[in-house]
Amino acid sequence: MLPETPFHLGLDLQGGVHLIYEADLSSAGSEDYDSLMRGLRDVMERRVNTFGVAEPVIQIQGEGSTQRLIVELAGVRDPKEAIGRINDAPLLEFKELLPEEERERRVKEILAVFADPVADPEFSSELRCQLDFGFVNRALTELGQDPCYISSSPRLTGEHVERATVGLDNLTGEALVSLQFNDTGAEIFEQVTARSLQKPLAIYLDGRIINAPTVQAIIGGGTAQISGNFQLEEARALARNLNAGAVPVPIKLVSQQQVGPTLGKVSLDQSLRAGLIGLALVAIFMIMFYRMPGFFATVALGIYVLFVLMVFKIIGVTLTLAGIAGFILSVGMAVDANILIFSRMREELAQKRDLASAIEEGFRRAWPSIRDGNVTTLLVAVILFWFGSTFVQGFALTLSIGILLSMFSAIFVTRSFMRLFLQTYLQRIQWLWK
Predict the structure, then answer these.
(1) CA 417, CA 374: separation in Å to the nearest integer?
(2) CATH number at residue 376
(3) From CA 294, how far away is CA 9, in angstroms rounded?
(4) Does residue 325 belong to any structural domain of this protein?
(5) Residues 338-347: pLDDT tens digits?
(6) Which of 51, 105, 181, 266 has the fewest CB atoms inside 10 Å of its own CB, making it the most exposed?
(7) Beta-bridge partner residues of 311
(8) How confident is the model at residue 5 (pLDDT cuts 50, 70, 90)?
(9) Do 123 and 243 belong to one domain?
(10) Is a pLDDT exceeding 70 seen at residue 35?
């Protein structure tokens, strides 16, 4: 039996929490403002996802040293818990691999608690630690300790890191991340690398491992490089996270608002009912005006709506009022494509063509108009998605999905239905097709 997948509803449809945070960037240089804010945004997304918020909206607002983070958490009913998860600045920490005997003892404790299938004695404790970070995080919650790594003594944290930058290896050209420590951090880092030679050194951000590079040499001087076949975007993401924890950026809650749904249940039901009535009227018009082709187009339109809703569920589109508006507009464009096709068919039949030729020629002649109109709309939707705010992006996304599927519905589904009835009794009833 397939699991039931619900639709993701946005803040305006199900309500939630709207928070505005102000970031204190006074301890950072102006050239680091944007990088720090992007890193903070990534960290916040991870934090709010830990308590089950589907599709949180986290945006950066403002420029320079007066930037803010807008946080929208749809469906959250306890704003205090959300605020508690977000308020602290990101914590960056470097941890050393535990000795083998201690790892073995802790792993056995965890396996006893969870009865995990990796309890095969052939697995070394180090391999078990690397198998499943989600499993490690469950252990942290349950046992209050990390089964694989331990904080260095003295602790090496984000306050000892000056900055992280992305560079390229001079020999291989591969992306890497460079770390620069302050004087105190340089001394601690040299001690840590001496103890961790040829072992992984885990980097934690907010209690989660973001990387665990193997120490290849004792590193002095306060400068280190992290490599590992990074794609450029992966290296940038790691550098952003390191910078977010490297320079503590305190955030202050300046606005908190519990948001109710813009449309209540009654209003939402009425809107859905109005949409169904509208679709029924369109279907009646298509059948009365275009007869048999209109009937096929109505069936294709129903299939199109089901396809679009299925795609929304599969890829997890968050539905907002603006997104629903984009979907409704795409339905109108799907109807418009069918009207263009049927108008061309009527012109061909008026010139005494047979039905099979009229169908093929009608689709062929209508295709350039359908293509140009839809491609133009898609380009506008891409621009809106790239430069627009959250609600505009929701409109652009649902519109784009709808347009792509509407072209498939009009060109392939409707044509396939009409071809099925060629060489049948219905083909000879001419008034059904004209």
Answers:
(1) 22
(2) 1.20.1640.10
(3) 33
(4) yes
(5) 788 878 887 8
(6) 266
(7) none
(8) low
(9) yes
(10) yes
364 vs 196, 341, 345, 371, CA distance in Å?
A: 69, 8, 10, 11
Q: Is the pLDDT of residue 417 over 80?
A: no
Structure-model confidence comparison of residues 417 and 198, the more confident one: 198
> Are 139 and 24 in a shared domain?
no
241 and 120 together in one domain: yes
Give the C-alpha distances (Å, rounded to integers) separating 36 from 69, 136, 206: 12, 28, 15
Question: Residue 191: inside a domain, yes or no?
Answer: yes
Closest CA to 245 of 136, 183, 178, 163: 163
Separation of first and last alpha carbons in the chain: 46
* Dihedral sign (CA 7, 12, 16, 21): positive
Do 346 and 355 meet the contact criterion of CB atoms below 8 Å apart? no
pTM here is 0.53
> Looking at the domain assignment, is residue 341 inside a domain?
yes
How far apart CA 239 and CA 163 sit, in angstroms, is 8
pLDDT for 354-410, tens place per residue? Answer: 777 877 888 888 888 888 888 888 898 888 888 766 667 778 888 888 888 888 877
DSSP, collapsed to helix, strand or coil, labels residue 158 as: helix
Instruction: Give 107-139 pLDDT, tens digit per residue.
Output: 676 666 555 444 455 445 554 554 444 454 454
Within this chain, do residues 195 and 64 fall inside the same structural domain, yes or no? no
- Own/partner long-range contacts of 397-400 (Cβ < 8 Å, ≥24 apart): 397/317, 397/323, 397/326, 398/312, 398/317, 398/319, 398/323, 398/324, 398/326, 398/327, 398/330, 399/326, 399/327, 399/329, 399/330
Is there a domain that residue 2 lies in?
no
Is residue 187 over pLDDT 90? Answer: yes
Query: Could you tell me the residue range of the domain that residue 212 belongs to?
Result: 92-247
**Together in a domain, 177 and 323:** no
Could you tell me the CA-to-CA distances from 309 to 137, 302, 303, 375, 395 in Å, in that order?
35, 11, 10, 22, 15
**CATH number for position 205:** 3.30.1360.200
Domain count of the fold of the chain: 3
Q: How many CB atoms lie within 10 A of CB 189?
A: 25
Q: Tell me how crowded residue 375 is: count the other CB atoms within 10 A of its CB.
A: 12
Residue 249 to residue 271: CA distance in whole angstroms: 44
DSSP 110-143: HHHHH--TT--TTS-HHHHHHH-HHHHHHHHHHH
Residue 214 and residue 287 share a domain:
no
d(CA 345, CA 348): 5
Q: Are strands 68-74 and 16-23 parallel, antiparallel or unpaired?
A: antiparallel
Shared domain for 133 and 275, answered yes or no, is no
Confidence band for 142, pLDDT divided at 50, 70 and 90:
very low
